[in-house]
Write a structure and sequence with these properties.
about 280 residues, four-stranded antiparallel β-sheet, 2 domains, about 40% helix, alpha+beta, five-stranded antiparallel β-sheet
């Protein structure tokens, strides 16, 4: 990682902040780590903290173009992947607090003001999350092999009454499947929560975004101490093996995206927005 003495005075650039770490660990980041658009990352230090940032084009991240980009799912996905790539590359430095996507400042001095203005929350979050990693668990209800329309096509109802009876039976079956899925998700979440330091439930993921078959009935994150990761992973595996009509996936270890409260509520200067400083 390059030193924080780089002085960027070009007006067409802003500084994108990926994460906050302890300053003493920033020098151990790989030199080849690159940020958005292949830009080198920099450790911008202020006291015991360091913000990991890189220059980005104001044409993409100033307030007006950023507002337009946030409506572009392709741009958002590319930016999120680049953001995560940098955060993942920092994990060897110690505790990493990922910043909210598209957190930008005008210049390196603004990045340091972000650290100064949010010092108490950032230091408390690092202290609280140090030595832990985030693990994600998703559970899916497997799609049914046959749908009501399939049944009707192969065995048409003999009468209107028969049609209504089938509709009622289909509705009852769907309700029962939903109850079973909710109960299975609750049991998995409670079991994993008991094995973690903290847990957080996220809204179910849209299958059009995840690309996974079946309905997402559990989308959760768990903060797990590093020394208990193997035990936690084994527990998730046992739970997955007990499921019949549902499928469970485990991912990690990740930086504590779900538990850093967007880097302890840090805002760019006093403007309080992700595109600011």
């Amino acid at each position: 990682m390059r030193d924080d003495t780089h002085d960027d005075t070009e007006r067409d650039q802003l500084w994108y902040v990926y994460a906050v770490t302890r300053a003493r660990g920033a020098d151990s980041v790989r030199e080849e780590l690159r940020g958005l658009d292949g830009a080198p990352v920099h450790a911008l230090r202020d006291g015991a903290l360091a913000a990991v940032a890189s220059p980005v084009r104001a044409a993409d991240f100033a307030e007006e173009p950023l507002r337009a980009h946030l409506e572009d799912l392709g741009w958002l996905e590319r930016t999120a992947r680049g953001h995560q790539r940098v955060v993942d590359g920092l994990l060897s430095t110690g505790c990493v607090l990922p910043m909210r996507l598209a957190t930008v400042c005008r210049d390196p001095a603004g990045v340091r003001r972000l650290l100064t203005g949010n010092r108490a929350g950032l230091e408390a979050a690092i202290e609280r999350l140090d030595g832990c990693a985030e693990w994600g668990v998703k559970m899916y209800a497997e799609p049914s092999c046959a749908t009501p329309s399939d049944s009707a096509a192969t065995n048409p109802p003999a009468s209107g009454r028969d049609y209504l009876r089938r509709r009622w039976e289909d509705a009852r079956a769907a309700e029962e499947a939903a109850r079973n899925a909710a109960e299975a998700a609750r049991e998995v979440h409670e079991t994993l929560t008991a094995a973690a330091e903290r847990a957080r439930l996220h809204p179910p993921q849209d299958p059009r975004l995840s690309g996974e078959p079946g309905q997402n009935v559990l989308n959760s994150a768990y903060l797990v101490p590093r020394e208990r990761e193997r035990e936690f992973s084994a527990l998730a595996g046992r739970l997955a093996g007990r499921l019949t009509a549902h499928r469970l996936t485990l991912s990690g270890p990740w930086a504590p995206y779900s538990f850093g409260a967007a880097a302890a509520g840090a805002t760019a200067d006093a403007e309080g927005s992700t595109s600011g400083d």
